[in-house]
Design brief:
2 strands
Length: 100
């Protein structure tokens, strides 16, 4: 005769399995966040807080003429008192907000 669990034991087993699944999902979320942090560290934070057109050319992987057109956009972040200087964090936020 096979072993049968009573209702209380079945509920405990289900709770245990749900908790194990939750732990696995949490580990995946943590790993994804970690990898995103590493990626940001290797790209975004590899640049100084104030960027130049040369930096923009490298970030966008475009020609100087394209960077010139880009920085003329009214919505493109810039440091007003300093010609040809752009705030790194705002640039990456602008990229995020203007990407499909």
């Amino acid at each position: 005769m096979p072993f049968k669990m009573n209702i209380k034991e079945q509920i405990q087993k289900i709770d245990s399995l749900e908790f194990e699944l939750f732990q696995q999902k949490l580990e995946l979320v943590i790993e994804k966040a970690y990898l995103k942090g590493v990626q940001d560290g290797q790209t975004k934070y590899n640049y100084e807080p104030v960027l130049t057109k040369k930096d923009l050319k490298k970030i966008f992987q475009v020609s100087t003429a394209t960077v010139d057109r880009l920085v003329r956009r009214k919505d493109f972040p810039r440091l007003i008192p300093f010609a040809g200087k752009y705030p790194r964090d705002e640039i990456f936020e602008w990229i995020k907000n203007n990407s499909i």
